[in-house]
# Entry
Amino acid sequence: MINYELYKVFYWAAKTGSLSKAAKSLYITQPSVSHAIKQLEESFGITLFYRNSKGVTLTPEGITLYSYIEKSQILISLAEEKMASLKNLDSGELRIGGSDSLFKHYILPYLESYHQKHPSIKLHLNHGTTPETIAFLKEGKIDLGVVRLPIVDSQIEVMKGIQLQDCFVAGPLYSELKGKILSLDLLLQYPIILFSRNSRVRMAITELFHSYGYEIKPEIEVGSVDLLIELARKGLGISYVTKEFITKELEDGSLFEIQLDIKMPPSQVGFMIMRNMPLSNAASKFIELVK
# Structure
C-alpha cells in the first residue's frame, strides 16, 4: 500500500509542472516533494516524470497514473466541500417522524424557525402512529421521531419535550352538560369519538378507564385530530382530544370541555433517536432549537 500523501504530491507536481509550485501548493519544502516523487517511482519501479530546466513533465506511464489520480483528487475535493457544507448547514436533510397532530400543533413553529435559519436543508416529514414512527427510526428512514411517551426500548434514547393535557370535549348540541361534573359511568352513556386503536392517545385512555373498571367503546374511530374536533363540533358525539390543540375552539365556544369526577393525567411528549448512533449535524441543530 502506497501512502496517500505520495499520490497527493504526484498530483500537484503533474498539475503545476513544477516541483517548487507543488511544494508551495502543499505548504512543504521542494526537497520533500522530490523525495516523495522518488519514493513513488521506486514503489512502482517506473519513471513518472521527465526533469528539465523548466520543471517536470509526465512520462507515458506518468500520464496513465495521472488519469486515475486526477479523478480521485476531484472526488476527494468534492467530498471535503460536501463535509464543510454539511457542517455549515448549507446542504443536507432533516428527516422527522411523528403524528399529524404533533407536527401541526407542536413541531410546525420549530420547523418554520429552522427553515428560516437553514433554508438549504431539505425537510422530510414521515407521518405515522407511535409504533410506525419507531419502525421508521429503526429502519433508518428518519433521523428522529416526536412521539407520546413512555417509550421503553433499549435501542432508543428519549429526550422529554412538552407536557400535554387530554380531555373530553363536546359541541353546542350537548350544552346541557356544560358546567356539570360527570362520572365515568355517565360519560359512557353518550357516544364517544376516539383516535384509532394503535395510537398512543387511544392506548392511554383505554388503560385509564380499565384502571377504574370501565371499558371505553367508541361509536366512531378516526385517524386525525381535525376529524375529532369537527365531529364533536357537529354534535356527532364527545371527542377525546388534546386541550392545547383546541384553544381556538374553546375560546370561540364551538367546543367546551367535559368536566369529570376524576383527574385526567397529563401526557408527555418526547423526541427519540437511536441509541449510540451519531446524529447528523442537521438533526442536532434541530434538537438544540427545540430545547
Q: What stands out?
A: The first strand starts at residue 49 and ends at 52.
